[in-house]
Amino acid sequence: MLEIVLSTVRHRKAGFAGAFVALLCAAALVCACGILLDTGLRGSVAPQRYAGAPVVVTGDQFVHQTKIKKKGKVKHKAKAIAERAWLPASAADRVRAAGARDVVTEVAFPAEIGSGADESWGHGWESAALTPFTLREGRAPAARDEIVVDAATARANGLRVGSRVRVASAEPGAYRVSGVTRQALKGQAAIFFSTAEARRLAGHPGMVTAIGATGSKAAIAGALRGTRATVHTGADRGRAEFPGAERSRIKLISMGGALGGTALLVAVLVVSGTFALSVQQRQREIALLRAVAATPRQVRRMLGQEALLIGLVAGPLGAAAGVPLAFWLRDRFRGLGALPANLDLVVSPFPPVAAGTAAIVAAVAAARVAARRTARIRPVEALGDAALTPPRLGAVRTIAGLLVLAGAVVLTVVLAGLHTEAAASPVTMLAAIVWTVAAALLGPVVARAAVAVLGVPLRAFPVGGHLAAANLGAGARRLASVITPLTLMTGLTATILFAQTTTGHAAVRQATEGTLAAHVAGPKIPHGTAEEIRRAPGVTAVTEVVRSTVRVGLQNYGVQGVTTAGLGATMDLDVRRGDIKDLNASSIAVSTTAASRLHVGPGDTLRLTLGDGTPAALKVVAVYGRGLGFGDLTTDHDLLAAHVDDPRGAVLIAGTPPKGLPTVSAATLAQDTASANAEVNYIAMGLIIAFTAIAVVNTLAMSTADRARELAVLRLAGTTRRQIMRMLGWETLAVVLIAGLLGTGIALATLTAFARGMTGGGPSVPPLAHLGVIAWGALLAAVATALPARLAMRARPADAVGARE
């Protein structure tokens, strides 16, 4: 058997090339996703600011929930909060009482000088020892208007001792550089103030962000027992220093898992289609084996071993290619700010091994499924079966297709009831894929129906159109195999692109319609500047807006904090119930979506955890409709600003604002709630789209190359090359039309359900963009058909007809 397998692979290289390419790309994609997932699970961040402190104490950066399930089983869950948790400064006394030495407290707050590092933080000079920072020149800041800057910031902004510079922060001001450090941190700037000035600017009296010390972790943890403090040592200090990196790591788990799962489903579908087409092209060969007494089991073993051989080569090569692909993804995500520079990829043997194994298993399973019917036919019928296409689908395939179709309907109904992007996005992709699987299983029926409709206009064109109609009608199974990857590409591409435009368009529309102010200043306007704008001539109302994320239970909700004076002149939230005028520091307004999920209304109490981990119980005073544009929750500005890292935000101005203010469009208010990670989703899912595009080219090229003898017979019968190319052109056009309609229908069904759940309206599908998606598919199909056809017709017709299959 092995000799037959090796001989077959050796003499049918072109036929197995398509399967090889599909498996290699599948393994690479799955491996890259696995590395992202592994990084999310096991990745660590090296400390920078806290590198010189063996023990670091910070506030708890998680919200915890404990549930007692059946039989007394206790389940504990923890979710990261959005802002930095603060500690009482008195916690340092407890640390000292535990016998710790070199106890140093720190406050950290946003502060920037010009342009430079991605992050820029202000600190008190006493915390310089945590790194440690030492002075290259000058002295430590002593006066209120003195600062020390790190070496990189000084170099980037041309600063030296004695320079005067303006520092942007919650309370911007002019400072004199009293010193420059020897050190600089990677990716973050450090500006040191005097102790008193740093604590004033931080805006958290009696609180600190971290405590560094040298001592016993166990003793310090014991001294802090009963407080919200957490103790970190070793690599865990990096997580304490970079809470954003921890949130990115958690996001990487969900993204890597969702992307990997989607990639695996698409890979299985594509590989199965490729092997099905390969086996279909070899029906005559398999039929001859059955006629000379090969048993069904032997045929299945042969095809399985062929697939195993291809998988053993393509799987490891693809897995190896997945490693650089993962690094490419890392660089793209870092460029978009979705992945911090100090969170490195974890490259272990497990993702490549898992990806290679998955490719091998998918290859063997796909080959055996594809061979099921051909291997089971009776020897007497073998040769006839190879020449004729079965008139209808088998019962098993029909039942499977109907069951999958029912599953697609159920998923679509479920999708219509999901109101958050985190829940809806994976279901959206899964629904589109399941619709495509149903179309693939029922493909021959769909193809015959489509050809019956398209055959009438095709036959109106002499020779080329008539031949195309005849070929399409006689090859329903081959047509279905070709249509499936193109349908998948069209449906997935449209779904991915227009799910983003659907939420983005709804959010921008709501923000634009709900912003009554003539001018919007931002994005980082401090409270003092807003007060100056209020007093400016011609200004009738000013609303300060700060944004954050809170947790209700363990679920994230976007929240905006607004000043209530004059709110009716600057913002219309589309209040449905209650009165927004009752909003104050002890109350909250919720969107209709949040009210439905949380089962609250005016008069109810909503318990939540603010961004820095502070619990709050607020009375619901209003329910509003424009949640996508302004956030699911709205609180008093001062309440929210006291619990965020950066209390600066946008300012809505009614009247004539002072000149020189940085302005933004009203749609900017919707950026945080209208899919802030759209670019990340495009890059990640773009890989799957690229994979399906390769599958389209692969399948069409295999199908066209297999028709060399058919094209030769047509040429011997008097058909010219031009007429054959026209015939293939009409066939390609028919394939594109059928796949375009199926893909559009799949995307439309999925997007309509997605839009109903997310926006309450319909999908936003730019016509030109969708035509571009179909045109891209048409271009791929044309190239994948024309080039193999021209190569197939290079040989003389008589030689091609007599060539061995």
From TrEMBL:
Q: Which GO terms describe its molecular function?
A: transmembrane transporter activity
The organism of origin for this protein: Actinomadura verrucosospora
For this protein, the record's Pfam families field holds: FtsX (PF02687)
Q: Which family does it belong to?
A: Belongs to the ABC-4 integral membrane protein family.
Q: How does it sit in the membrane?
A: Multi-pass membrane protein
- A GO-annotated cellular component: plasma membrane
Look up the domain of life of the source. Bacteria
Annotated keywords: Cell membrane, Membrane, Transmembrane, Transmembrane helix
Name of the protein described by the UniProt record: ABC transport system integral membrane protein
User: Subcellular location, in the record's words?
Assistant: Cell membrane
